[in-house]
Amino acid sequence: MTDPAPRPLKIDFVSDVVCPWCVVGLGGLETALETLKAEGVTADIAFQPFELNPQMAPEGENIVEHIGAKYGSTPEQSAQNRAMITQRAAEAWPGFEMNMTEASRIWNTFDAHRLLHWAAETAPARQKALKQALFTAHFSQNRNITDAGVLTAAAQTAGLDRAEAAEVLASDRYVEAVRAAQALWRGRGITSVPAVVVEGKYLISGGQPAQVFEEALRKIAAEV
After folding, report:
1. Strand 202-205 versus strand 195-198 pairing type
2. CA 172 – CA 56 distance, rounded (Å)
3. DSSP H or E run through 221
4. Which residues on adjacent β-strands are paired with residue 44?
5. What is the CATH number for 163?
6. Is the peptide bond before 58 cis (omega within 30 degrees of 0)?
7. Looking at the whole model, is its pTM more than 0.90?
8. Are 132 and 95 spatial neighbours (Cβ–Cβ below 8 Å)?
9. Does the pLDDT at position 107 exceed 80?
10. How confident is the model over 57-93, as pLDDT tens digits?
11. In terms of residue numbers, what domain contains 37?
């Protein structure tokens, strides 16, 4: 009699749609999980909300001005950081295009998180595709992700019902649920993203390379 296959690891990927290191982290995590399949290690990933800039105005902010005000970076330092992150994203997620420029903008992401929550409730298998579509809209296409048309197009790309996505955005559905989830993860000590929480108790912080995720997940899988 063969041993039953181990259950998938439960992974909560706490992140924001406008976080470039979250792109790097998701790419590294996915690569690690693909490698670990041969060892019987699999995972179910749920995307949890975190807003880097919850007070961001609807019109957003220029990325250079925003980073300068928030971190004290000069325009030259900002350009260097964008180039470095673009390279890291290309390495972590082959095929993903990160097209940030000095004209890019940072947006409020609350409605994007509402759509992700909707996807998790109604079509959980599509939530990752929606997350990826939102990353693409923001980082690859430089679209305004506070715009309902952009958000519903991302939902359609992910295989979700665009009309229902529009209904969600036009209402206050999931407002309290998203706020509660954000408070939950803040209460658990998450103050920066990406934060990859495995089995509710193991934390892997930051946009780590695939090898770091692979080693950590292999160890965790042996313990649970």
Report:
1. antiparallel
2. 19
3. helix 210-223
4. 10
5. 3.40.30.10
6. no
7. yes
8. no
9. yes
10. 989 999 999 999 999 999 999 999 999 999 999 999 9
11. 9-56+108-218
